[in-house]
Amino acid sequence: MAFREIRRFGDPVLRTPAEPVTVFDDRLRSVVADLLDTVDAPGHAGLAAPQIGVGIRAFSYNVDGEIGYVVNPEVVELSEEQQEGPEGCLSVPELWFDTPRARHAVVRGVDADNEPVTVSGSGLMARCLQHETDHLDGMIYVQRLAPDRRRDALRRIRETDWFWQR
């Protein structure tokens, strides 16, 4: 188990859809342990496997004291009621942009032993579940922004010191 380096915006692994997990073994359990260790740090609400350079469908979450993970997650329910508020990303450090999301979300998947898991929540948890599932589909949250906001976000990303130090 280890705290893993987080890949930043511009890394191709973040734009590549993750592969479903088909083998439930010690290697998977090791990745899950690393996801849990890495998300268990101040300011970390969620972390998808591609963000640590592993192209599988798995993510961890750390919201309001609730820490866990889901393998092969699928969003199965989104409320029609929306929320819009600041959203950040460990792969886009130090920048926050108002991002529209469903107010409530339900994700189903499995654990490292291929046993069913359901995670649901509203507010920040709903935002986290949608954000991390997007990562597994090769999408970074700035892609969800309206065109004018997205242009501004991409400009601000290019202006950061970390963008040029990848």
Main sheet: strand order = 1-2-3-6-7
Please give the share of residues in helix.
10-25%
Mean pLDDT: 94
CATH superfamily: Peptide deformylase
> CATH first level: which class?
Alpha Beta
Helix-strand makeup class: alpha+beta
How far apart are the termini? 24 Å
Characterize the biggest β-sheet.
5 strands, antiparallel
Provide a count of the helices.
Answer: 3
Spell out the helices and strands N to C. Answer: HEEEEEEEHH
Strand content: 25-35%
Name the quaternary structure: single chain
Q: How many domain regions?
A: 1
CATH-defined topology: Peptide Deformylase
CATH architecture: Alpha-Beta Complex
Radius of gyration, rounded? 15 Å
Strand tally: 7
Protein name: Peptide deformylase
GO molecular function, one term: peptide deformylase activity
Function: Removes the formyl group from the N-terminal Met of newly synthesized proteins. Requires at least a dipeptide for an efficient rate of reaction. N-terminal L-methionine is a prerequisite for activity but the enzyme has broad specificity at other positions.
Enzyme class: hydrolase
Describe the structure.
Belongs to the polypeptide deformylase family. With 166 residues, this protein is of the alpha+beta class. It has helices spanning 26-39, 124-136, 147-158; strands spanning 46-48, 58-63, 66-78, 82-89, 92-102, 104-110, 116-122. A 5-stranded antiparallel sheet has the order 1-2-3-6-7. Strands 4-5 form a two-stranded antiparallel sheet. The radius of gyration is 15 Å and the shape is globular. The model has no long low-confidence stretch (mean pLDDT 94).
